[in-house]
Amino acid sequence: MRGFRATTPSERRCRPAAGSRLALRSDNVPARLRDDRAPSAHPTLRPVGPHRPPGRAKSAWLSLRSVGLHRVRSCRRGGQVSLTLFGTTHDGPLVIAHRGASRVAPGNSLAAFEAAIEAGCDAVELDVRQTADGVLVVHHASRRRGIPVARLTYQELVHRSRHLQPRLDDALALCAGRIGMDVEIKDEGIEAAVLSLLAQRFPLNSLLISSFHQTVIAAVKRIDAEVRCGLLVGPTRLQGRAGRRQAIAVDWAVGCGADALLPHQLLTRPVRATRRPEAGLLDAAGRAGLPVIIWTVNGPRRMGRYLSDQRVAGIITDLPDVALDQKRRLQNSGAILSS
Q: What is the pTM of this model?
């Protein structure tokens, strides 16, 4: 086994920003591409820059220090894994509840976040938009009954919704000090407002900010370079680029300054045409020093495969209780050894 050290800020600044900087604007994934039993496809980190030193062998140890997650020890399949988030050490890859425990309660609701906390999840993922009257609201869809959320006041949005759409501040008040948070910024231009509100309850370097928009990640980094960011990448954005999709996704993340990469699970499959194991996205991200958190993983077999893979820093799932059970079984079987 070999050890990888974390890249330094100076190395990151020297890293060439290869690849396109086009923003990833859509998280709409056709039903045929969605994970089994997933109610809707959901995106859900940033390459802070630099190029890993040349000559690096395949990863046996993977440092997640650049995003505040530390993998103390690991091996290619299984091994002792320890992750630190919000000052708490977690055994094995992170289990992040997609919009909270969204199969127990409505997604992005306070009830769903509370259920995720009670289940023992490592973090909750939630979506943030801004209403016409400047309220930061936890809401996934860009429209409500055909009207853009950005054109509705908060009260109008609540009136058009089936359940109460919580304000971001309400969600932060519920989660602060109890669970980690992956805050997905859905719209460009609201980065400063989101960070200002987050800073009132969390140290900004203890949160994960994610987005499909490369411009959002870059804007967050300009405001505060210490904020941990992850770039979300969906399968539709890379359709027709099967031969280079791994390199393109990594280049996007590096180019916008993300600390980690959050790909849809379908993008983690190896490219058959190359017949090279290292051609897979997980290995490409590892060589670039990018931790990988995969979404939206709901199938038990896939959960087991990702949770036991040392290249995976975590999974985002609609079924956190199932994922946590899978993780415990893997730890008990020795596939993931507790620290």
A: 0.76
